[in-house]
Amino acid sequence: MAIEFKPSPSLPPPSTAVGPVAWLRQNLFSSPLNVFLTLFSIYIIYLIVPPIIEWGIINATWEGASKAECTAGGACWAFINVYFEQFMYGLYPSEETWRINLAVILIVLLVGMFAIKAINKLFLSLTILLIYPVVAYFLFAGGVFGLEVVETSRWGGLFLTVLLGVVGIVASFPLGALLALGRRSNMPVAKSVSLVFIETIRAVPLITILFMASVMIPLFLPEGLNFNKLLRVLIGITLFSSAYMAEVIRGGLQAIPKGQYEAADAMGLTYWQSMVLVILPQALKLVIPGIVNSFISLFKDTTLVYIVGMFDFLGRIQAANHDTNWLGTTVEGYAFAAFVYWIFCFGMSRYSMALERKLDTGHKRN
Amino acid sequence: MTNTNMARAQLEQGESTIIEFNDVNKWYGDFHVLKNINFSIKKGERIVVCGPSGSGKSTMIRCINRLEEHQKGSILVDGIEMNNNLKNIEAIRKDVGMVFQHFNLFPHLTILENLTLAPIWVRKMPKKEAEEMAMHYLERVKIANQALKYPGQLSGGQQQRVAIARGLCMQPRIMLFDEPTSALDPEMIKEVLDTMIQLAEEGMTMVCVTHEMGFAKTVADRVVFMDAGEIVEANEPHEFFDNPQHDRTQMFLSQILNH
Ligand SMILES: Nc1ncnc2c1ncn2[C@@H]1O[C@H](COP(=O)(O)OP(=O)(O)O)[C@@H](O)[C@H]1O
Ligand SMILES: [Mg+2]
User: Domain-by-domain residue ranges, chain A?
Assistant: First the structure.
């Protein structure tokens, strides 16, 4: 008869040295002040969180055709549910929204390809910056390859918000860098043009610029020469953001020691070579937090396009709040908006932190 | 001393002037920083420039590659007149390597990238060829095993040797040094000086601002003493040190040699 060997499980380490108890002791109860702060925080959390969970989850209503069906006393998420497509795509035709989804999938795949070592990064960047926008534009607008034309006035919702944000960010970045270089240049023309542009734009609120872009410019343009309102708004946002970007980048340029400029000059690099190869890479790395800060605020500012009659993500939610079937769902709408904006902005901020870590090769400057 | 003799012999054969200052004057606002500089340097010559702080040594050698602009007089480098013509400035900078007191390596690039930047972008050399050449010069300054590190990961002495190698990668005809050892800890000075001595022995034209008088004695063909924007005295090292002509030179030497 074989005797079965059963190993007894090894004993866990003493709970005072490792494990949750030790962790708690070290991090939350290490001193009287910490004990007090911990208990106080727990009390605050106790006051806030359970009611939110009760309202948002336990007593929430998820399905329904009108506010009247939300009888559980909690949040009426049915409102978001019903309007979800409009919040995402605006008035983009339902049967065509796959085009937006496809464009999103494409860009995610393209950006993901940066992780593949064998791929030429320059080629990939150029594809993303030059080819992708054209493809995306035709996907969105249609009119080629039998795609149905979708007027830009029907673009809206989160789609429009992201579009305004991304185009504004991508276009204002190089423009801002140019303006920053211009403002520091020795050439009187470049210097004064940059200076006047930056100071003028910064002295005007975004609302004014959007209003000018959509209402005033057409008044001055000759009859017939009228171009798309979305395009005008995009230009307005880009110009606005580039002025701020320029000042952030200028801060970085100023922090680069004179010796770096001199070393680059002494080797015979031209002005543009020395800027692109030596100065800007260092300056931009220094101001990543400021750049991301501008991007985040631009992303949220785009919501001001409601002033010129465009319905972005927030605009769509506000409009839906006026639906007589759904009166009294303002809180749900804004909660949803806050949640989505938070995801995007938090994502940008985390990405910038990762980028900073990646670019920091741990070397001090000289 | 045989090295110096050999170099002299070479010098006497090729008497061509490579740098020429004619009545050069420069002002910073009202401040007259260079006064009537007249000086010429022959191909292959090793010049050491010394003088009290603020006497205009840096300003003078930085005029040679137009990091500073002079206002009066003329400077000729390799037969090219230094003026506002960008073509001339570019041509001269290709021929002149410079090593700075604070190294001025590019911190965002690896050592290898620091060295290949100018060959690739200014000399339009293929990347592979530039890298081979860079490795060759890194071996010469005995630092090839650090090629893939970043400047911040190297000691001061190593960084300065990289800076010398970076200057050499341009395959210049002239090397300028502006106090290359003044920012270094004492134990690192020797490794940098050794590299410079080796370079001098190979016949490179060198203009070197330094207070390393031992270096001046072994390597220099002439020592130039500057004070208050003027060249006070220029002489062969043994004459310069043993028999200085001017009071100001004597005073400077007594200060610098006695501490
Ligand atoms: N950019 C500048 N503007 C005004 N004065 C300067 C500038 N650069 C240097 N100087 C002055 O010129 C003088 C000579 O400087 P420099 O050539 O650096 O001297 P050295 O290298 O001999 O110590 C010093 O008095 C210095 O203060
Ligand atoms: Mg100096």
Answer: 92-150, 156-359
Confidence of residue A45 (pLDDT cuts 50, 70, 90): very high
ipTM: 0.89
B27: pLDDT confidence band, cut at 50, 70 and 90?
very high
CATH of domain A156-359: 1.10.3720.10
Q: Could you tell me the pLDDT band of residue B8, with boundaries at 50, 70 and 90? A: low
DSSP character string of A181-244 = HHHH-S-HHHHHHHHHHHHHHHTS-HHHHHHIIIIIHHHHSPTT----HHHHHHHHHHHHHHHH
What is the percent of chain B with per-residue pLDDT over 70, rounded to a whole number? 93
Subunit contact A267:B107, Cβ cutoff 8 A: no
Q: Which of A57-61, A280-284, B28-32, B46-50 bottoms out in mean pLDDT, i.e. has the lowest? A: A57-61
The residue in chain A having the minimum alpha-carbon distance to the alpha carbon of residue B120 is: A269
Give the other-Cβ count within 10 Å of B121's Cβ. 18
Could you tell me which residues come within 8 angstroms of residue B111 by beta carbon, excluding any fewer than 6 positions away? B105, B138, B143, B146, B147, B148, B149, B150, B151, B154, B162
Per-residue 3-state assignment (H helix, E strand, C coil) for chain B: CHHHHHHHHHHHHCCCEEEEEEEEEEEECCEEEEEEEEEEEECCCEEEEECCCCCCHHHHHHHHCCCCCCCEEEEEECCEECCCCHHHHHHHHHHEEEECCCCCCCCCCCHHHHHHHHHHHCCCCCHHHHHHHHHHHHHHCCCHHHCCCCHHHCCHHHHHHHHHHHHHHCCCCEEEEECCCCCCCHHHHHHHHHHHHHHHHCCCEEEEECCCHHHHHHHCCEEEEEECCEEEEEECHHHHHHCCCCHHHHHHHHHHHHC
**pTM over cut 0.95:** no
Of B26, B30, B33, the one to substitute when testing ligand 1's pocket (max ligand atoms within 8 A of C-beta) is: B33
**Residues A15 and A21: beta-carbon distance below 8 Å:** yes
CB within 8 Å: A262 and B67: yes
pLDDT digits (tens, 9 = 90+) for A97-143: 888 888 889 988 988 888 888 888 888 888 888 888 888 888 888 88
Phi, then psi, of B70 in degrees rounded to 5: -95, 155
